[in-house]
What does this fold into?
Amino acid sequence: MSKKNIEQRIRRHSIELIKEKGYISPVDLLLKMDRLTPKQVEDWRFKRISYLERVTVGNLANLNHALKTLKKFAEEQNLKPSITVYKSWGKGPKKHLRFSKSGNPFMEELYSTHYVQAKSKKTF
It folds into this structure.
């Protein structure tokens, strides 16, 4: 998939998510783009998958580009970034979930940042 095509899909699905939920999360966006399945996300949340990139469809370069495109889109639309802590579900101690194999703090932040629409004005 070309970078231009990725950017178009990001914009289209981001607008849909804002209208549906009032915010965009990278996980929801990847679900909408069919890069993840709900079952994969559930398995990750229950610690059956060690990190989310392991099951994400597509190469890491395109995934990285998609996350950066989402951030740029959110800035253009004046959406407020909100870092969200993802903890495991199920029995036992709740552990922080990893998105990437490397655990790189920059990538982990890109994945865990939700972009929230301001309540006072609509951007679309």
